[in-house]
Amino acid sequence: METGPRLAMCALLQGADWIDFATVRTLLDVSDSVVSKHSRALEEAGLLEVRKGAVGRRPRTWFRLTPVGRAVLASHLAWLTELGSAVDRQP
């Protein structure tokens, strides 16, 4: 499973309410297809909420983490911190 783009997307979304597709794509420096693929996987896992609408006549897509997504991200980051501490303690 590719976790790099998904983790980056979750980290980006953790500090915001809604972020539009184009902003996610630009800030992560990935293609539309990468954002689509990973946002779909996160949505199917219940970690991401997707809202579709329009600005004027142009269709838009926005993302935000669900409460479960925020909890999962916090748990994952805590685990990574713990892992880093354990590695640092190795002789």
TrEMBL record:
Protein name in UniProt: Transcriptional regulator
Family matches, as InterPro entries: WH-like_DNA-bd_sf (IPR036388), WH_DNA-bd_dom (IPR027395), WH_DNA-bd_sf (IPR036390)
Biological source species: Streptomonospora algeriensis
Domain spans labelled Winged helix DNA-binding: 6-82
Protein origin, superkingdom: Bacteria
Lineage: Bacteria, Bacillati, Actinomycetota, Actinomycetes, Streptosporangiales
